Amino acid sequence: MSAGFSSPVQDYLDEKLDLNSYLIKHPAATFFMRMTGDAMVSAGIFDNDLLIVDRSIEPQNNSIIIAVLNGELTVKRIIKHKQEIYIETKFKDNNIKITEDIDFSIWGVVTKVIHELHL
Question: DSSP 3-state helix, strand, coil percentages of the chain (rounded to 5)?
Answer without folding.
Answer: 15, 35, 45
